[in-house]
Amino acid sequence: MRSSIAISELFTSLQGEGLDLGAPSFFIRISGCSIGCKYCDTKYSWKKGKLWDIDSLVKEVLKSKIPEVIVTGGEPVEEKNLSILIKRLSDLETVRKITLETCGHIFRDDLKYPKLKIVLSPKPPTMGVDFPTETLEKFLTTYEQVYIKFAAYDQKDLEVIKEFAYKNKNLIRAPIVIQPLEVPFEDYSYTSKRIFELVISDRKFINDFEIKIIPQIHKLIGLK
């Protein structure tokens, strides 16, 4: 019996956020999420999507002729067949890099593949969910190719980020990305400017860590 995964959508775009900003990428958006973030920008992906067998997903990746694949959600770590998909993608000669985007609430240790990079995107208090400190620490301890991309809307969010960063300074190996959080009641460019001002005002923080403030560029230029 073939392994299958419920998919919300497949599409081609640029990587609009984080350290790989601007890279042409093929996106696999896995459906389903139990976290329930208040201002999630892909709530449509919470519903169960179309079932795809993994062979067919691999064919779509090959057909795209794009060397970078992003597996996102929803919350892809909740998908039981995720490890099978990652392995199949990692085995493809034409795939250069696989990026897995997760909020870090659910830990898995079965994703150790050579081309995989894990991006942890924990949601701040503004999103109305608990901050997943323990599972983030497990990811950082278990995987080498991993970095954190913190979303932030206000000073309260930044204080949670700083507390985690200082507590786990020995585990953080890559630059810390701070991503302004898009909310429906404020213009995103305004939020981005305000987060920059809040971060840059804390000279100790930006000297103690390598910080990169990176807005979601696809939101600013109108891409998916």
Describe this protein's structure.
The mean pLDDT is 96. Strands 3-1-2-4-5-6-7-8-9 form a nine-stranded mixed β-sheet. The chain is an alpha/beta fold and 224 residues long. The protein is globular. Helix 1 (54-64) packs parallel to helix 2. The longest helix is centred in the last third of the chain and has 13 residues, at 155-167. It has one domain (4-221): Alpha-Beta Barrel (TIM Barrel). The chain has helices at residues 54-64, 82-90, 133-142, 155-167, 188-200, 203-208, 217-221, and strands at residues 4-14, 24-30, 50-53, 68-72, 97-102, 116-120, 146-152, 176-180, 211-213. It is built from seven helices and nine strands. [4Fe-4S] cluster binds at residues 33, 37, 40.
Characteristic key phrases:
single chain; 224 residues; TIM Barrel; nine-stranded mixed beta sheet; alpha/beta
Helix content estimate: 25-40%
As laid out across the biggest beta sheet, the strand order is: 3-1-2-4-5-6-7-8-9
How much is the average pLDDT? 96
Query: Beta-sheet strand percentage?
Result: 15-25%
The CATH homologous superfamily is called: Aldolase class I
Which CATH class applies here? Alpha Beta
Which overall shape is indicated by the principal axes computed on the Cα atoms?
Answer: globular
Question: What is the N-to-C order of secondary-structure elements (H for helix, E for strand)?
Answer: EEEHEHEEHEHEHHEH
Number of domains: 1
Rg, rounded, reads 17 Å
